[in-house]
Amino acid sequence: MGIYAVTGSASGMGYETARRLQADGHTVIGVDIKDADIVADLSTPHGREHAADGVLAASGGRLDGAVLAAGLGPAPGRERLRQIGEVNFFGVVEPLVAWRPALAAAESAKVVVVASNSATTVPLVPRRAVKAFLAHDAGKAMRSVRPFGPAAPTMMYAASKIALSRWVRRHAVLPEWAGAGVRLNALAPGAIMTPLLQEQLATPRQAKAVRSFPVPLGGFGEARHMAEWMCFMLSESAEFLCGSVVFVDGGTDAHFRADDWPKAPPARGLPAYLRKFRRSRSV
Ligand code: NAD
């Protein structure tokens, strides 16, 4: 049986995943702003440090896996704008970096980061905001989305999740992660019925946006199903999964981007027998 850190363990997907892991006999170290083994505010550097240190102390320096599910949805207000970026991006990345040696110590650890299909389905997200997150500049990310006015929280949310997905894919393949046996992947849910979505549905503007979003399968997903996906991504079956962003969103990502994927990488360093095809049109 393993030891798992779960952020956002007090509610929604994090809660369901923690419950399922415990039911399977694992030890869970829950992190949340309330009702958790380690109560920490992931929207501040101090809170993130407290969460990181607390998990390391409670796990004895060895983690079989981690689920990073703490997050905040788009809602109005200047302070909320800051919190969205701090919790959704830095509240994932900073604890994870601190836990990496403990994950590597388990030899075949698995990590699931909860991203979102908003990373590929929200239009006009400013590139500057995403770059700012990846450069660890929270202030610049905020300044980049503020001109969007009432749409700023949606832009902040999407930018934080784009940056998070990219961070996962960039790091998953590195010697420090894949090379150390740590499987780092992301789950990208669509609209899932949790308190986060309920908060959005309670705001007329957000509710309209959520309800008008195309979902080919219709309706909303369930937190317990996301928990099952995450437990699968933490299981031995996911031994060969690395840097994947798994969309479980009722078909919205496929609806908007059927032909965006797959795409081949740029043609660099081609072997001689392929060079003559360089000028032909390719995917
Ligand atoms: P939720 O509100 O039920 O759970 C989120 C948890 O994060 C809560 O327990 C909350 O207390 C915790 N949290 C928030 N701010 C915190 C802070 N400052 N410090 C510590 N903990 C904090 O929501 P959920 O839907 O289960 O969300 C889980 C993840 O899924 C989030 O990252 C969210 O962005 C993502 N997501 C949700 C949906 C959806 O439709 N529900 C869709 C895509 C992605």
TrEMBL record:
TM region positions: none
Cross-referenced InterPro entries: NAD(P)-bd_dom_sf, SDR_fam
Entry keyword set: Oxidoreductase
Keyword Oxidoreductase part of the UniProt annotation: yes
Keyword Iron-sulfur set for record: no
Highest taxon listed in the record's lineage: Bacteria
One MF term in the entry's GO annotations: oxidoreductase activity
Annotated family: Belongs to the short-chain dehydrogenases/reductases (SDR) family.
Designated name of the protein: NAD-dependent epimerase
Organism of this sequence: Mycobacterium scrofulaceum
Lineage of the species this protein comes from: Bacteria, Bacillati, Actinomycetota, Actinomycetes, Mycobacteriales
